[in-house]
């Protein structure tokens, strides 16, 4: 049996009221100081599963937190910290208080916890100052692979929170961003992990504007030549501000939450975009003494250009992969995913020293969409299809239960064989599908030892996972009812 080497979790949104891992008080209101029934049941089932996947005396697996683990954009920092500590106590130690995972946790931040990357950048810059040199700028991104000669910067926040839990005093957490690659000993198999926000065109909107309006960019470049460093340099600041910095901003944070609700609704999103474009045109007209009806190029007017730019970025959020609940991946979503893998990721693989990335047995793991799936995707630039796994999300942030929404975790052995544990999808007609093991769905599943081992371990721990499913279903249905009540209360008001 292959020993488990890595376990990936994402989109826990700890601290947020809409996370099913956050505890509630007697009145059903969010209380991050309490351990939710779902989290408690998950921890109990996970402990049993790891007992069967990690042989006695074997090295403990590495936990990889694949972004949006903390909900720093919409939740106060105190709630976020308390909720993460609850998660660590419930899911990262065994019944005897011993750690379940290797002492070094890896975190690949997402949009809602992007501030973890900002803090790591600051930490790295300060370390350089302590060594007697002043870097030209902040670190643009970490090395693609975890290497001793290019150490990943630490996360002081997550390290302190981990060490606050009895039994985890020797733990630490390091940050990889925006991509982390795991490569086997033969350099023929590679798994790239990314939270998924730069797959989503919304989070690339400044880069999109730069391509549409080359005069705005400091250095003109072809639209199809973006690197991960450019994506972060052009978009990271506003992603950090809007999605990772407003949780502790008082009334401004509440306004951001309302904007978040607006942008997940197609009609409200379009209306908001038109109003924003109108205000932008008015401001430009006043500042530069011009009219919105003034023709700029080829008969296109200023108001048409601004509205088109806003619609192509902000206005498309409700139709993006994150907010389209009708299906797991639309054709546009699939094209965006193939673009990110075949473009910025392939360039980063080559620059990291992998001379022929097109020949790799490549896998890509991401979250962000809150809709778990497993598939094989043909990608231009690679000779064989890419195994794509999505880790879903642990939230109920809209009042409709949809079968596409749910959570998964991805497990890898030392040879980087990969399998998913589909934890839940939203219940339909009062029924929730049981926890199941899944591969990429092609012929390779038959020879996948990680998938076989996971299936066997799941069968031996079915009772614990059934208990987890019941708790998760109750939490999701309760949150959906609460959101529906809030919606009608707001409509009445």
From TrEMBL:
<dbReference type="InterPro" id="IPR029052">
    <property type="entry name" value="Metallo-depent_PP-like"/>
</dbReference>
<feature type="domain" description="Calcineurin-like phosphoesterase">
    <location>
        <begin position="5"/>
        <end position="120"/>
    </location>
</feature>
<protein>
    <recommendedName>
        <fullName>Calcineurin-like phosphoesterase domain-containing protein</fullName>
    </recommendedName>
</protein>
<dbReference type="InterPro" id="IPR004843">
    <property type="entry name" value="Calcineurin-like_PHP"/>
</dbReference>
<dbReference type="Pfam" id="PF00149">
    <property type="entry name" value="Metallophos"/>
</dbReference>
């Amino acid at each position: 049996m292959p020993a488990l080497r890595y376990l990936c979790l994402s989109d826990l949104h700890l601290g947020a009221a809409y996370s099913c891992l956050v505890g509630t008080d007697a009145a059903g209101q969010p209380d991050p100081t309490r351990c939710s029934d779902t989290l408690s049941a998950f921890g109990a089932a996970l402990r049993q599963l790891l007992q069967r996947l990690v042989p006695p005396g074997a090295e403990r697996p590495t936990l990889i937190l694949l972004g949006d683990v903390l909900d720093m954009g919409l939740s106060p920092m105190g709630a976020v910290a308390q909720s993460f500590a609850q998660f660590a106590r419930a899911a990262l130690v065994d019944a005897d208080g011993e750690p379940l995972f290797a002492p070094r946790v890896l975190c690949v931040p997402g949009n809602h916890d992007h501030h973890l990357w900002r803090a790591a950048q600051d930490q790295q810059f300060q370390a350089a100052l302590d060594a007697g040199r002043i870097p030209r700028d902040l670190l643009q991104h970490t090395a693609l692979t975890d290497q001793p000669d290019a150490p990943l910067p630490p996360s002081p926040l997550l390290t302190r929170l981990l060490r606050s839990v009895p039994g985890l005093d020797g733990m630490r957490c390091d940050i990889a961003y925006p991509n982390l690659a795991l490569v086997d000993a033969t350099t023929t198999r590679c798994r790239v992990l990314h939270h998924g926000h730069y797959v989503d065109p919304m989070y690339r909107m400044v880069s999109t504007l730069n391509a549409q309006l080359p005069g705005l960019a400091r250095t003109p470049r072809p639209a199809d030549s973006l690197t991960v460093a450019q994506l972060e340099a052009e978009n990271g600041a506003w992603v950090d501000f809007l999605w990772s910095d407003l949780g502790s901003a008082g009334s401004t944070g509440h306004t951001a939450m309302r904007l978040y609700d607006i942008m997940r609704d197609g009609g409200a999103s379009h209306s908001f975009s038109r109003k924003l474009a109108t205000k932008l045109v008015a401001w430009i007209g006043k500042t530069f003494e011009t009219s919105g009806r003034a023709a700029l190029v080829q008969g296109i007017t200023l108001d048409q250009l601004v509205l088109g730019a806003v619609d192509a970025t902000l206005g498309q959020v409700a139709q993006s992969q994150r907010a389209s609940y009708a299906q797991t991946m639309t054709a546009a979503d699939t094209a965006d995913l193939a673009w990110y893998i075949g473009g910025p990721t392939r360039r980063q693989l080559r620059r990291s020293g992998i001379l022929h990335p097109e020949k790799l047995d490549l896998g890509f793991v991401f979250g962000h969409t809150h809709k778990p799936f497993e598939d094989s995707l043909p990608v231009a630039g690679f000779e064989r299809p890419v195994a794509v796994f999505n880790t879903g999300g642990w939230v109920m942030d809209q009042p409709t239960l949809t079968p596409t929404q749910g959570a998964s975790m991805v497990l890898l052995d030392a040879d980087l064989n990969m399998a998913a544990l589909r934890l839940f999808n939203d219940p339909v007609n009062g029924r929730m599908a049981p926890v199941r093991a899944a591969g990429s769905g092609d012929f390779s599943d038959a020879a996948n030892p990680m998938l076989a081992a996971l299936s066997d371990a799941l069968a031996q721990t079915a009772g614990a996972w059934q208990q987890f499913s019941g708790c998760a279903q109750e939490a999701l249905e309760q949150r959906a009812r609460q959101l529906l009540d809030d919606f009608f209360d707001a409509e009445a008001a």
